[in-house]
Amino acid sequence: MELFAAMSEPGRRVGGYEGVHFLSDRESGLRAVVAIHSTRLGPALGGTRALSTYPTEEAAVVDALRLARGMTYKAALAGVPHGGGKAVILLPSGPFDRARLFQAFGRAVDTLGGRYITTEDSGSSPDDMEEVRRGTRFVVGQPPAKGGSGDPSPVTAFGVLRGIEAVARFALGRGDLAGLRVALLGVGHVGHALAKLLHGAGAKLTIADADAAKAERVRVELGCAVASPAEIHALECDVFSPNALGAILNDETIPKLRCRAVAGAANNQLAELRHGALLADRGILYAPDYAINAGGLINVALEWRGYDEARARAETSRIHDTLLEIFARAKAEGRDPATVADSLAEDRLRGVSNAAVA
User: What pairs with residue 17 in β-bridges?
Assistant: First the structure.
């Protein structure tokens, strides 16, 4: 096992991060990066992306850095006693032993001494986390049969549903979602679960996914309309719900939006922070991504302390109230919700008591 750490002293920060660790293991083919943004509120907790689609190692590092910072803010806003971290594994391009790779990753995580706790993310699964467990105890998201909380996607989707209910109440004056027009991009684990919840609540769905087969399965299951993933953001609707990869809200897409609000599970939806203000200038209510999609984090954080499914759902349900507080404060202060959410999270990180994040 080889471990290269750009910085590993707890409490010291480099470029705003406590640590950026480059991990490799020749025998398994492991190449990974772990970014630790903050441990101020507790050990950093964040998922491990396992993908082969990064064009360069630099792109993987940038993704880990952005996501780690988002996890810090997500945990602070949700009142979860953890900091933010994220891992990215660059999967080998050729054949490899997946179990061996994740076991090696677990041993690498263990060398960080508990400053980072990992869990599943895009491209990884509870079964992968079981392999990670063979190398470290600093992992959550185990299969239920092993005493873990399993796939957090349903809880994440439930939190996004509660967030969309807050959006509908604040922006549209609606007490339910019956007939709400939702354009939903991405029907992977979270997006599919969210689509089912929205369908059950009576929303009128149009879906899109880069994987046409996934979109077709959901169309058959729910009887919803299907649009092109390149064009769904431009559909006239009440809520545009991004549930795929990030940076969907940018200089090109925002002028084309024909929705009243944006509310989805994707991380890093704003290509740049200024795009939150651009949405507000257009009169489009934005549910900050790390506020609305915190259900998965809440779920796995409880596993670390002692999992209770009912408590996880109850704490996730409070996303509704957190968003209403953000929206109300944004309106009162003449600021956009993304900026307000950052302020609330930073208050928590500074130890400032604030009812919205208590």
Answer: 14
- 179 burial type by CB count under 10 A (0-12 exposed, 13-18 middle, 19+ buried): exposed
Residues involved in catalysis: 86
The whole-number average pLDDT for the span 83-104 is 95
- pLDDT, residue 122, reads 85
Please state, in angstroms and rounded to a whole number, the distance separating the CA atoms of residues 108 and 91: 16
Question: Are 188 and 209 contacting, i.e. CB atoms less than 8 angstroms apart?
Answer: yes
- Which CATH code for domain 2-71+83-146? 3.40.50.10860
Cβ proximity of 260 and 284 under 8 Å: yes
Considering the domain delimited by 153-294+322-349, tell me its CATH architecture.
Answer: 3-Layer(aba) Sandwich (3.40)
For the chain, domain boundaries: 2-71+83-146, 153-294+322-349
Which of 13-27, 34-48, 130-144, 168-182 is predicted least confidently?
13-27
pTM: 0.88
